[in-house]
Amino acid sequence: MNAMNASAISLSQHPDHHGHDSHDSHPHDTHGHGPVLQYQPGLPLTRGKLIMWLFLSTEIMFFAALLGAYVVLRFGASVWPKPHHVHLSEPIGAFNTFVLICSSVTIVLALEMARANKTTAAKLWMVATLLLGSLFLGVKGYEYAAKFEHGIYPWSPRSRVFEKPDLYYGSAVRARLGEPAMIDLLKELDDTPESQLTPEVVLARRRLAKVRQMVASPDQQPFDLAVVADQIMPLPVEHATAISHDGTDTPVGGHGGGHTSGLNDTFPWLKLPAVIPGGTMWASTYFLLTGFHAVHVMVGLIVFTILLLYKLGPKRAGMIENAGLYWHFVDLVWIFLFPLLYLF
Amino acid sequence: MATATSSSTLVTGAALTASPNRQAPKPRPVMEFLSTYVFSKDHKVIGLQFLFSTLLWFLIGGLLALAVRWQIAWPWSDVPVLGKLFAQQGGQMAPEFYTMLFTMHATVMIFLVIIPILAGAFGNFLIPLMIGADDMAFPTLNMLSYWFMWPAFFFFGASFFVEGGAASSGWTSYPPLSTNVAAAPGSGLGQTLWLLGLTMVGVSSMLGSVNYMTTIILMRAPGMTMFRLPMTIWAMFITAVLQAFALPVLTAAGFMQLADRTIGTGFFSPEGNMVNNAMASTGGGQPLLWQHLFWFYSHPAVYIMILPAMGMVSDIMTCFARKPLFGYRPMVYSIAGIAGLGFIVWGHHMFISGMNPALGMTFMVSTMMIALPSAVKTFNWLGTVWGGRIQFTTAMLFALSFVSMFIIGGLSGIFMAATPVDIFIHDTYFIVAHFHYVLFAGTAMGVWAAIYFWFPKMFGRTMNEFWGKAHFFLTFIFLNGTFFTMHILGAVGFPRRLADAYHYETFHHLQPLNAFMTWCAIGMVASQIIFAINFFWSMFFGPIAGRNPWRANGLEWTAPSPPGHGNFDFQPVVYRGPYEYSVPGADKDYLMQTDPPNAAAAALAAAAH
Amino acid sequence: MGSRWTGIFWSFVFLAVPVLGVATFAVAPAFDIWLPKDVSSDGATIDSLFMFILILTGVVFVITEGLLFWFLWKYDAAKATGPATYVHGNHTLEVVWAVIPAGVLLFLAIYQMNTWANVKMRRPAMSPTLEVVGRQFEWRLRYPGRDGTLGTPDDLFLVNDLHVPVDEDILIQLKSMDVLHSFFLPNLRVKQDAVPGMKIPVWFKATQTGQFDIVCAELCGWGHYKMAGQITIESRKDFNAWLESMYAKQEATQPEPAAVALAE
Ligand code: HEA
Ligand code: HEA
Ligand code: CUA
Ligand SMILES: [Cu+2]
Question: pLDDT tens digits for B275-326?
């Protein structure tokens, strides 16, 4: 009895106070029995915000694990490709970083507007965020497509990346050149009169012929395959373990230092296997890290879309703030990923 | 039994006399049953859903263990009864089937029994009740955390029936065995399903843990400061923190392994790996990376699997010793210490894995240090029984046995922490003994203590004490018969995970001992029949318990049994810590957290703090 | 219920734990269920460390379990009179029982470091005696052959039949071809996982002649249980003779193709 009285007294001062500010937790029909309970003050955070922070800390651990794995794999690998070997473009990456940072600003503005009850402006900023996020994904998709175009997949059946120009590599090139469709295309190329081609293509055609001959030759030497690889997709010189020609004079033309584009670039339909030391593991980690980041971006976009269905006034400020927290986190992850993947 | 019956008539300070019998279970129509018990957002119902599901899986895990034991005792002989259930050809076990058995035994026990029964069943049921909240902070999330277990149940369950059978690379799932599809028969779909199941368990735990933390931080009754929380809540809280920080790492690693298996990345396969004369197509990865990621989660996870039991046992022991918990704050700090140190000892599972031996040395030191907070806990439990007035209820017996058995399991951990000794005993039955002592003899006994103790709150009725004690006695005897002997098996070097070790000269003479252990294991599982009957019978026909059958102090005992929606029919206000038993000058031997202070008690409380 | 016999009965159940526990360890050696015969130079230190920890933990075990029994016996509610002692803890005690185990454990940690360094870190300066390669489900062995260096065409290839000379430092280069294995010599107190992609050095010195088991101690697939080998420790003379005979045998037959692949 006494407990009741005591609590009744302490409660009577603010009988309507819920002790928490979010109402999402209780459908009213489910608790008709007891009184509305009052709680000991904990942290000065709403439930929604607290759980968001906690959720984000789990996310930090998730990405920490992925990044840790990346670091271990990268520094444990005997070779690791330079960004250019795998056709990463810093300007594109930097642009995407900029896009994400902008979107972090726009969501803050959306929140400000919502708090000030400027619902239309809030909506517009939200749309801007959504668009920027989509732009990021679009650019990411473009980058992925470029990788796929070069046969850089993290997995082998479709990947055209080889670790070294060994016999396996030679037979893969041979197999590709022997595909029926390829034979037709090559024939078509061979039959095109020189007059219809630019001088570069004529040169490239000659190099291709030489490559075909070398690959098909029965007494081929390992360094022949190195030359083949270099013709198909030359690696920029900065490569640590550059596949050298041993200064050998090769009939197909010296291009050791400067940069003629590879055969795969000149004839995009060729799609011959290429040699990128460490390329497969690079691709595995690249797609792992950016893939999970992209999934997080997508989740963010879904959340924004859902938010856009509501009137973005002060009542929704809490939700927008949580979505914003999440978005800043996604942004932050990218700020770690960008230098790690593109610059080092 | 004296305490249980007399107390239902006691009027506690907070109990309302309004509807004393409202709590008796009533039959309900089917539809209402569905909405109330199946798709409920009420934490109590969700807790019970977890409890029933995990008990069912416990049975399955136990049967799998029996099949394992049968093979070890009598290799290649027909497995009776179970053989028909599990094995494909007749009753005799195929060697690859044995590897699936222990893998799935451990998987079921760890991911579908111990973790969900502690956090899912008891965490859910107890947290809001013990802190004075009407429910979890996010009931829908809470419901989801249960429903995410179902895909896990499905994936793990289905893996037995797919081509090639269930996962068979141990619960630790070390690559390349687990990633290279050519490496093992069960490495077909089974291993992939295993990874998916693991991810689902992860999602469930994750949803649960952030919810628990939020609830405990923001929804304590007025006056319930952090240092007035019962140990159960502290343990649940810190367990949730551990989950939140360790589990994402396993999830990430699981995705990587999944990618290795399905799309052929090579995170965990080294260059030039040949299996079954077939060259792996991708490589460049590191097998040890998985072990690091796995144990970074799974070592903290072993504490996830024991801390809640430690908390519950502390509450039960104080109640039946009628004495305040000895060293409340040290107990809290030691839980936190175990959790913190738990993150820096994972390498002790990898002493001989090929990891840099210098690293092994640092992990050895940190592992030794983690015994410290455990020592503090053990001595404080002993301090709690010292000078008490001990009531030998079933719950108390199980709680005491938790302490007694945890000491054994903990001390065997010291052998393994000693790196040179671990060279010899790693991957032998010494390890198997160690973890069954902490997991089964420890945690599972703690869980039984909790079931007997909170059963009245769950169902409004008490379990039968006589049969409870019979259950305790038989389980206690048989479990020691099964698991204690494993230590000396381990001392011979008897390796774990071997379908048949007797062809080795060194282990040839150990078969009779193994047969003895298997008989004990059979006895242990059989004893559970008593428990199952007692459990279900008492649910419907046990004596009505009343609000506070054990005359305990916690907030949950002020609510009706079972509590209705919203839990409390009054506003609980907390005036003191949860362990004020036998306070001198008080009119009864316990002071509930809600009892308003009277002058004498207030003076004492002031003196004590 | 509640009779004084109940408490006595349960106290004794708990007393049975330390009594039977100690008894088990005491009688096990008599039944030969104990550390297998040790024939290595480092095994003795490992065994004595095991015994040291056994005694240390045994003492802790008996004390703690004994206290539990005593308290249960003494403070049974049916027997003891008056209310329970109302205490919330004791600061001094807390410090004592935190500091003493800390000291003991730290001592233990430091005490064993030297042994660990001996068996896993201070690798003898010599070229490998042989290479052991784990493979589902056998141990492939490669001796350097007549020229004394591994990786030359005259290497000697064998499966599961390991011979080493007694009283000499043996350095094994451990590899795996497919999945994890663990090279376990119970009688030499040697255990080391074989990891694909890594070359791990393992060293020991056998002190007695005889034949012993090689066990695979890391799950490596369905045939893990039968991945057994044998180590024969013999005098230098016998070893040389054996090596010669094996070598002659290999010369007579062509080396297996698989063995060639292994040579890279
Ligand atoms: C609930 C689960 C749980 C708990 C609590 C523990 C607790 C401990 N564990 Fe255990 N462990 C497992 C579950 C658990 N473990 C599992 C499942 C595995 C195997 C996984 C697998 O490979 O499949 C394992 C494996 C494992 C290994 C790897 C062995 C190997 O594979 O070679 C090691 C090595 O150091 C270890 C050590 C410890 C230590 C030092 C503790 C300490 O926390 C124990 C501390 C407690 C005490 C020491 C007792 C009380 C203290 C006193 C009475 C004070 C006085 C004591 C002294 C002065 C010594 N454990
Ligand atoms: C929580 C974890 C847990 C639990 C409880 C158990 C329980 C048991 N375990 Fe297991 N075990 C593991 C975790 C666990 N184990 C792990 C992690 C491994 C390592 C696997 C690996 O190497 O990868 C292992 C491996 C393992 C092995 C080694 C296999 C090998 O290496 O070759 C053995 C062998 O004896 C074994 C035996 C047993 C036995 C006899 C039990 C018995 O205690 C089982 C008793 C079962 C019951 C008592 C069931 C009770 C049922 C109920 C209570 C239900 C009542 C129903 C209702 C009310 C609805 N286990
Ligand atoms: Cu090889 Cu187990
Ligand atoms: Cu551990």
Answer: 776 666 667 889 999 999 999 999 999 999 999 999 999 999 999 999 999 9
The answer to whether A74 contacts chain B (CB < 8 Å) is no
3-state secondary structure of B390: strand
pLDDT for the residue A197:
83
Interface of A with B in 6-25 (CB under 8 A): 6-8, 10-11, 19-20, 24-25
Residue type, B33: F
Position A251 scores a pLDDT of 34
Q: Which residues line ligand 3 (CB under 6 A)?
A: C 134, 137, 181, 216, 218-220, 224, 227
* Cα(B207)–Cα(A264) distance, integer angstroms: 49
Contact C14, C69 (CB under 8 A): yes
- The distance of B181 to chain A (nearest Cα, Å) reads 15
Q: Could you report the per-residue pLDDT of B240-252, keeping only the tens digit for each?
A: 999 999 999 999 9
Q: Bridge-partner residues for B580, per DSSP?
A: none
Length of chain A equals: 344
Q: Is-contact B411 C57, C-beta < 8 A?
A: yes
Indicate the domain borders of chain C: 2-85, 130-253
Query: Which residues is C76 bridged to in the sheet?
Result: B390
When CB atoms are compared, the residue of B14, B214, B251 closest to A47 is: B214
Please give, rounded to a whole number of angstroms, the shortest distance from the CA of A204 to a CA of chain B: 31
Single-letter amino acid code for the residue at A155: W
- Is the minimum CB–CB distance between C62 and chain B shorter than 8 Å? no
Which residues are found with C-beta within 5 Å of the ion, ligand 4? B 299
What is the rounded distance in angstroms from the CA atom of residue C245 to the CA atom of residue B148?
64
Domains of chain B: 40-271+283-301 (1.20.210.10), 306-545 (1.20.210.10)
Mean of pLDDT over chain B: 89
Residues B169-224: pLDDT tens digits?
999 999 989 988 877 765 678 899 999 999 999 999 999 999 999 999 999 999 99
Task: Determine the topology of domain C130-253 in CATH.
Answer: Immunoglobulin-like (2.60.40)
- In angstroms, the CA B53 to CA B146 distance is 10
Contacts of B137 in chain A (CB under 8 A): 20, 25, 47, 51
Q: Any residues with CB less than 8 A from the CB of C152 and at least 6 apart, and which?
A: C144, C145
